[in-house]
Amino acid sequence: MRVTATGRRLIDPKGGSFWFDAGAVCLDFAHTGGEGQYAVFESLHEPADLAAWLATPPLSVVVTVPVSARELTAAKTLRQAIWVAAHARASGEALPQDVVATINRAAAGAPLQPSLALDGTTALWASPVRATQALSSLAREMIDLLSGPLASRIRECASDNCPLVFVDSSRPGARRWCAMERCGNRHKLRALRARRA
């Protein structure tokens, strides 16, 4: 997958937003909503929402075939599998077999195919571009992440009540927070208050 940068602005349903860089597009995708208690963060309500998310940089996949309700369901299934797999890896636990099967099934489909534009300097995605191809590419990226050198760097935010997961690609491997402007600053504030008390 040709991606030069990662990260998205996450919206808190209680108000506010912050920039969160998960370090991999597949992990950015895992943070688009969820099941159970995370349903309040859902951003993929209808097929057009998935198309809009895919079209946003860094992925910049403009689908040429409209996203179907079935593809939206498949996207949410893959998203949940990526979420569970990332948390399992961050906790040092074995990945559930059904999660592995879901990721493998999505990856087995045809991925996005890069294509050189007529100007000879610009890369595009070869048409037709379908959502299932983007999902396959996201699943393949997750496979590479889980089986590659950064697998041991998948972490959950160190804050007590923040479930966000990310790849710590910093040179020293010392990233602890989802974002300094959010959980990192909250931790510093609590530590300062504790010292003053």
Automatic annotation (TrEMBL):
Entry coiled-coil feature ranges: none
Organism field: Asanoa ishikariensis
UniProt-listed InterPro entries: ABATE (IPR010852), ABATE_dom_sf (IPR023286), Znf_CGNR (IPR021005)
Domain Zinc finger CGNR: 153-196
Entry superkingdom: Bacteria
UniProt xrefs under Pfam families: ABATE, zf-CGNR
Protein name: Conserved protein containing a Zn-ribbon-like motif, possibly RNA-binding
